[in-house]
Amino acid sequence: MRLPRGAQSESIELKMTPMIDVVFLLLIFFVWTSSFDLPEFDLPSAIAEPPAGGSEVSAQPAPVEPFDEIVIRLSMREARTLIELNGQAISGSRQLRDRLEEILALGVQPPVIIDPSPQITMNVAVEAYDTARLAGADRVLFAASPEE
Question: Is the pTM of this model over 0.85?
Answer without folding.
Answer: no
